Fold these 3 entries.
Entry 1:
Amino acid sequence: MDKKENPTKSFVLRIDSETMEALEKWANDEFRSINGQLQWIIAEALKKSGRLKKQK
C-alpha cells in the first residue's frame, strides 16, 4: 500500500469570543467554513507579505 501524504496539518487555535463571532459572521457572509475562512485569510496575508508565491 502506498502511504498518501496529507498536505494539511492540524493545530489548536485559541481565540477570544468577540473575534470568533466576527470570524463566524465573515465566513458565513462569504459562504465559507470558519476553517476555510482562516485558510483564506492566512494565504492572503502570506501573499501580500511576499512569503508565499501566488498560485496560478
Entry 2:
Amino acid sequence: MWKVPKEYNHFAFGAIQAGVTCAVASAIASMQFLAEGSFVSHWLRAYLLSWAAMLPVVVVAAPFIRRLANRITR
C-alpha cells in the first residue's frame, strides 16, 4: 500500500478532516433535494466545492488548533 511520508502527516490530516467535515455538512444541506430525487448530484457538487474551499483553511488552522487544544487540556 502506498503511504505518505511522515513529514506530510499534517497535510494528510487536513485532507481527511476537510473531507469528512464537508461530506457531513453538505449532506445535511442537501437533504431538501431528497424528495426531488436529485440529492446525490446536488450533494456531490456541494461536497466538492466545500472541500476545495475548506482544505486550505483546515491545513493552515490545524497546527494552531492542535496547540490551543494542548494548552487548554491536561
Entry 3:
Amino acid sequence: MNYAERLKNVTVLGAAGKMGSGILLLTAMEMTDLASKPENKSRQFVLNAIDVSDQALGGLMKYLKVQVQKAAEKKIVPLRKVYEDHADLVDNKDIIDRYVADVIGIVRPSTRLESAYQSGLIFEAIIENPGLKVKLLSQINKNNAKSPWIFTNTSSIPIHEVDEKAGLGGRILGVHFYNPPAIQKLVELIRADSTQSELVDFALVFAKNLGKIVVPSNDFAGFIGNGHFMRDALHGISEAGRLSAEMSFAEAVYTVNRVTQDFLLRPMGIFQLIDYVGLDVCQYIMSVMNGRLGTPCGKVSPEVLHSPLLDRMISAGVRGGQRSDGSQKDGFFKYEKNRPAGIYDPDTKRYLPVSAFQAACDERMGPTPLPQLNWKSAVKHPKKEAALEDFFGKLAAMDTPGANLAKRYGERSREIGLKLVSDKVAQSEEDVNMVLLSGFYHVYGPINKYFKPVTSNQ
C-alpha cells in the first residue's frame, strides 16, 4: 500500500480537542494536496473527524474553515498551479474559496466510532487515559478488516503498553505532536520494539510533508519532552517550597518563576508553563510516568514523580489550562489580559496581587547580567552564541540570590537532560536539546556548557 492509498481513508479520534483539531487540520490539507495530483484523480479521500459532541464538532468545522483559509492565503502561488486547469477560477479569492471547499469537503464529522471501521490510518488524540485509549483502539481493531495503522498522540504512555493491551500486533506508533500542532514544528516519534518498520517509514514521510522536525524517542513513559518538563517542574516546585521558609509562598513562586524566565532566558517562567499546560494535566502525566519508571528495561527506579502542592492546588479548584478561545485560565497565577497579575495563596485560598511584593522580590534577587538579554532578544540576536556565552559567563561570576538560584536551576536542567540520555530515553544529547529548542522554544538546550555543578551552599 503506497503513501496516497494509506491516506485515502483516515480517522482522527478526539478531533474536536486542542490536539486533535490541529492534527485534523494538517491531515486534511495533506490529503487535499494529494487528491489534486493527476495520479490520484480516481481516489476518493475521506477524513473522519470523530468526537463525543455534535456541538464540539460544529465548532471544529468553523475552526477548520478559518484556519484553511489562512493557510490558503499564504500559499496562493502553488494553489494557482494546482487549479490552473479551472478556467472559472480567476481571482485569488476564487482559488482560496475553492481550496477551502475542497479541504472541508473531505472531512466527515461524526460521533460514532463505527466511522473508523473503514480507515487504513487512525490518529488517536483523545485524553491521556490509558484505559480509554486501549478500549477504543481495541474496538476499532476488532471491527476494522483493513488492519489499520494507529498513530497515537500520547505524551506519556508507553507505546508497547497500548500495543499489547489493545492487541494491535505492532501496528502502532507514537506520533507526539506539540501544542498547537498546526504551529509547533516538533514531532516526537516513539516506536515500541514490536512496531512495524513500515509505520515508521510512512510517518517520516508524512511528518516531512507537514514541514515538521522529527526527533526519535525511545519507548519510556514521558518520552523526552515530558521526561524533562515534569522533572524540571518538580524542581521549580521544590525550590519554591525551600524559599517559603524565608518568604511568603506567593513571593517564592514569583521568585522562581522570574528566575526561570529572566535569568535562564526562557519564553515563560516555570509556574506560567505549568499553568499553560494545566496543573491537573501535569499531575496526571506525573502519575502515568510515576507508575512506569524503569520500563521497558525492567529496572526499578527509586525516583518519585509527584507533587503534594499540585494535589493541594487542584483540590482547591485551581487547575490552569486554556479556554476554547485560547485565553489562559487562572492557575498559580491569576491572569489579566493573559498576563500574570496575582499569585494564589493556598492558605487563604485567594490571589495576592503581584504588585504588592514584586519590587521587594526583584531587589532581593539582584539584577540580571548586563547588557540585558531576554528570551525574545536572544532568539533574534545576530550573534546568539556569543551573546549567550557573555550572559551566562557573567551570571556564573555573580553571587546574588537570583544568580545562585538560576545556576542551581540550570545545572538541574542539565542533569535531567543527561539522565534522559544515560537512561536511554533519548538517543543522544542533541535529541534532548532539539526537543527543548523546538518543542518548548528554549533558546539553548539543557545540555550545554553554560552551567557546571553548583555547591550546596548556593
